[in-house]
Design a protein that fits this description.
This protein is mainly β and 548 residues long. Strand 23 (305-307) and strand 24 (310-312) form a beta hairpin. It is elongated.
C-alpha cells in the first residue's frame, strides 16, 4: 500500500450533516453535507452540501500538506510530510507538508517556526496565521412582496366580492409560504395560513389547487375586539371614531379567531367561515418552480356577514407575502406581534411598514461548504479567470461542497508556486465535518514566509457551481515591509462561477445538488457580476486574517 493510500485511509471521514437553506439555518436551504473518502455525493434541493467522493484526505481538524517524498515523523494527533530532500517533524494537531527543498517544522503551539520552501529564503522565519471564515448573511427569508392591486384594476385597493389579488414567486422543496391580509370589517383580524405558513411541496411535487382549507382567521392581539362592521373602532368606522383608535387588546398574543368569537367588552359574535369569505388557490409549474397564488373575495354583500345591525359587506385588504424555510415567517402563534408591520395590516390594511421591514432581510442565506486554502509564492493555484476549470477537483467542490478531489490532486502534485495547502471542514465549536450556516465559522491555521500569498475556495452552497474565493493570484500575506497582514479582508472575496454546470436560481433550482444539471454554455471560470447575482460576496462571508 502506498503512503498516499495509507494517508487517505487513515484520514477519511464520513458524516452526514443536516443543513438548511433560507432563514437562520438555511440557505434557504435544507441541505445535507457529508465528508468522506470514497463515499457518494448527496445534495438535496435547496442547497445541500455533500462532501464525499474519491480519495478525500480530510480530518477532524485542518490538514496542511505539500509536495511529495521526504522523511516524516508524527507526534500526537499530527502528521507531517516533507518535500523531496527535506526532513520534517510535527507536534500535536494538524497535518503539514512542505514544498521541495524545505525543512519545515510545525507544532501545536502558536508562534513562528523556522521554515523554508518555494518562495521563501532559507532560514527565513515563518509566521503562524489563522484564517477566520464566517457566514454573515443577514437574510432570514428567501423573498417577500406585496399584493395590493386587484386583478384587472389599475390602482391599489381592497377586494370587493368577485375581485382577486394574485402574486407570483419561485421556491424550492424546503420553502414555505406565509401571507397576511386584513378582514376589513374587524379591529385587527387577518387571513393567513394555518400555523403561520404552509408547505409549498408535497415531497418533491409542488402543490397546486384550492388551499382555502389551510387558511385561517387570526387575531393580531393589537386592538380590542368589537363586533365586526359595528364596533366604533373597526375598519369601516375607525376614521369617524371620536376617541381615536381602539384600546389595546388585553391579550396581546397572535391567536386564532374562534367561532363564535369572544368580544372584549363581553358577548360573542358568530363570524362567517373563511371559505364563505375568501377562496385561495395555487397554480404551480414543476419545471420552473414558479407559483401563482390567487386570493378571491367570494362573499355576498349583505348576506355573508350578518351583524346586530344587519347584513354588512366583506372587504379583503392588500397584504404582504413571504417565502422562506421558517415556519413563523410573519408571526408566531401564541406570541405577541413583532412590531414589524403586521399590526398596520391587521388594523388598517396598510402594507407599507411590513414590506419595508422585510425587504432588507430577503435573500439566500446560503451555507458555506468545507473547502481548502493554498499558500503560494507565485501563480494561480486554484483557477485562472477566463479559462476552463483544470479538472483537478474544483468542480466537485463547486458543485457538491467536497474538497476531497482537489486535496487528492494537490497531494499528488502541488500547483506551480505553491508550498502547502490546508483542508478545512469542521465548523468552530463542532466535532464533525459539515457546512457553516449563518453565524457559523471555520478557523484555518497555517504558516507562511514573507513574500507568500494565500488562496482559498468554499462553495456557495445554494448554487449549482459557485464558489467564494480571492482573485486567482490570491492575497498578499505580508506587506511591502515584510510585516504580516492582519484584519478583515474586506472586498477581497468574490463569487465565482466555475463554469461546469448551468446556473439556476440559487436555493430554488432543481439541479442544485443531485441530480447534476446541464453543462454550462460558458465553461470558463468567471466572476459573477451584479447583473447575474445582485448581492456582494461580503454580504455572505467575512474573512479575517490574524497571526498566532
Amino acid at each position: 500500500m502506498t503512503l498516499r493510500r495509507i494517508l487517505l485511509t487513515s484520514f477519511t471521514l464520513s458524516a452526514v450533516i443536516a443543513a438548511a437553506g433560507c432563514g437562520n439555518d438555511d440557505d434557504d436551504g435544507g441541505r445535507t453535507a457529508a465528508t468522506g473518502g470514497n463515499g457518494g455525493q448527496d445534495m438535496n434541493d435547496a442547497g445541500a452540501l455533500a462532501t464525499g467522493g474519491s480519495d478525500a484526505a480530510t480530518g477532524g481538524d485542518s490538514m496542511t500538506m505539500a509536495g511529495a517524498g521526504g522523511d516524516s515523523m508524527m507526534g500526537t494527533g499530527g502528521m507531517t510530510m516533507a518535500g523531496a530532500g527535506g526532513d520534517s517533524m510535527m507536534g500535536t494537531g494538524g497535518m503539514t507538508m512542505a514544498g521541495a527543498g524545505g525543512e519545515p517544522s510545525s507544532g501545536g503551539s502558536a508562534g513562528s517556526e523556522s521554515m523554508a520552501g518555494a518562495g521563501g529564503e532559507a532560514g527565513a522565519v515563518a509566521t503562524a496565521f489563522r484564517l477566520h471564515i464566517e457566514n454573515v448573511a443577514p437574510f432570514d427569508h428567501l423573498e417577500s412582496g406585496v399584493f395590493a392591486t386587484p386583478v384587472g384594476a389599475s390602482d391599489p385597493g381592497p377586494l370587493a366580492p368577485g375581485d382577486a389579488f394574485e402574486f407570483t414567486f419561485t421556491a424550492g422543496p424546503s420553502h414555505r409560504l406565509s401571507f397576511a391580509t386584513m378582514f376589513g370589517q374587524s379591529n385587527d383580524w387577518f387571513f393567513a395560513p394555518e400555523g403561520g405558513s404552509l408547505a409549498l411541496y408535497d415531497g418533491d411535487t409542488p402543490i397546486s389547487g384550492d388551499i382555502t382549507d389551510q387558511i385561517l382567521l387570526w387575531d393580531a392581539g393589537t386592538e380590542v375586539d368589537e363586533e365586526p362592521a359595528v364596533g366604533p373602532h373597526t375598519g369601516p368606522l375607525q376614521a369617524d371614531s371620536t376617541d381615536g383608535p381602539g384600546a389595546a387588546d388585553p391579550d396581546d398574543t397572535v391567536r386564532l379567531v374562534p367561532d363564535p368569537a369572544p368580544l372584549t367588552a363581553g358577548g360573542s359574535f358568530d363570524r362567517p367561515s373563511v371559505a364563505d369569505m375568501i377562496q385561495v388557490t395555487v397554480t404551480s409549474d414543476s419545471a420552473s418552480r414558479e407559483f401563482t397564488v390567487r386570493i378571491e373575495n367570494v362573499a355576498e354583500d349583505g348576506v355573508t356577514l350578518q351583524t346586530s345591525d344587519g347584513g354588512k359587506p366583506v372587504r379583503v385588504s392588500p397584504g404582504v407575502w413571504s417565502v422562506g424555510t421558517d415556519d413563523a415567517l410573519l408571526f408566531e402563534p401564541g406570541v405577541a406581534d413583532r412590531g414589524l408591520g403586521l399590526e398596520e395590516i391587521a388594523e388598517g390594511g396598510d402594507v407599507s411598514v411590513l414590506s419595508a421591514s422585510l425587504e432588507p432581510t430577503a435573500g439566500v442565506a446560503t451555507p458555506l461548504s468545507p473547502g481548502l486554502i493554498v499558500v503560494h509564492a507565485a501563480g494561480e493555484p486554484l483557477f485562472t479567470e477566463g479559462a476552463d476549470d483544470r479538472g483537478l477537483g474544483l468542480e466537485l467542490l463547486a458543485e457538491t461542497g467536497n474538497p476531497g478531489d482537489l486535496a487528492a490532486s494537490f497531494m499528488e502534485e502541488l500547483p506551480a508556486g505553491a508550498t502547502s495547502y490546508t483542508v478545512f471542514d469542521v465548523p468552530d465549536g463542532a466535532t464533525d465535518p459539515g457546512p457553516i450556516h449563518v453565524g457559523g465559522s471555520y478557523d484555518v491555521d497555517f504558516e507562511a514566509l514573507p513574500g507568500q500569498r494565500l488562496s482559498f475556495a468554499t462553495m456557495y452552497g445554494a448554487s449549482n457551481d459557485w464558489i467564494f474565493a480571492f482573485d486567482p493570484d490570491g492575497v498578499a500575506l505580508f506587506d511591502s515591509d515584510g510585516m504580516p497582514v492582519e484584519g478583515e479582508l474586506a472586498g477581497d472575496v468574490s463569487i465565482w462561477d466555475v463554469g461546469t454546470e448551468l446556473s439556476e436560481e440559487p436555493a430554488v433550482g432543481a439541479h442544485i445538488g443531485a441530480p447534476e444539471g446541464a453543462v454550462d454554455t460558458d465553461s470558463s471560470v468567471r466572476r459573477l457580476g451584479m447583473s447575474e447575482y445582485p448581492v456582494e460576496a461580503d454580504q455572505h462571508v467575512r474573512v479575517t486574517l490574524t497571526t498566532r
